[in-house]
Amino acid sequence: MTEQPITLTPSLSVPDPHEAIRFYKEAFGATEVYVETVPDGSVYAGLAVGEATFDLSRESADYGNLGPLALGGTPVRLSLIVPDPDAFAERAVAAGARVIFPIEDQPYGYRQGRIEDPFGHQWMIGKPLA
């Protein structure tokens, strides 16, 4: 019997899952792993950017699932390591992301910057310096 590997999958709360799916596809080149609509009309989706996956669903105050915009900010940063962080961030900004700090060589050994998506989630975009 194969042991279940340990995984970590961020789950993002967003006001409009369909709009979020569209944004992540355009901005990050994300692909749909699954999109489910349950009887009450709620949408749950899993997306992939390369090998990295994350889930998203509509915000629900009843379940304590509020996104950064509803909360007035986020304490969480999501980190994506990509081959060309400059081009990746430019594509995201063209799709509607906001630059928090630009992609630059950092003293801790990464070429990295931070963007915020239209739903208030913050993404560190970078790669290790050679």
Short overview:
The protein is of the alpha/beta class and about 130 residues long. It is built from 3 helices and 8 strands.
Can you tell me about this structure?
The protein has helices at residues 17-28, 68-71, 85-94; strands at residues 11-14, 31-37, 43-49, 52-58, 77-81, 98-105, 110-116, 122-128. Helix content is 20%, strand content 40%. It has a single domain, classed as 2,3-Dihydroxybiphenyl 1,2-Dioxygenase, domain 1, CATH 3.10.180.10. The chain has 130 residues and is α/β, with parallel strands linked by helices. The protein is globular and about 50 Å long. Helix 1 (17-28) packs across helix 3. The strands form two sheets. A four-stranded mixed sheet has the order 1-4-3-2, with helices on one face. Strands 5-8-7-6 form a four-stranded mixed sheet, with helices on one face.
Key phrases:
single chain, 130 residues, alpha/beta, 2,3-Dihydroxybiphenyl 1,2-Dioxygenase, domain 1, four-stranded mixed beta sheet, 3 helices, 8 strands, globular
Which secondary structure elements does this structure contain, and how are they paired or packed?
Elements: E1 11-14, H1 17-28, E2 31-37, E3 43-49, E4 52-58, H2 68-71, E5 77-81, H3 85-94, E6 98-105, E7 110-116, E8 122-128
Parallel strand pairs: 1-4, 5-8
Antiparallel strand pairs: 2-3, 3-4, 6-7, 7-8
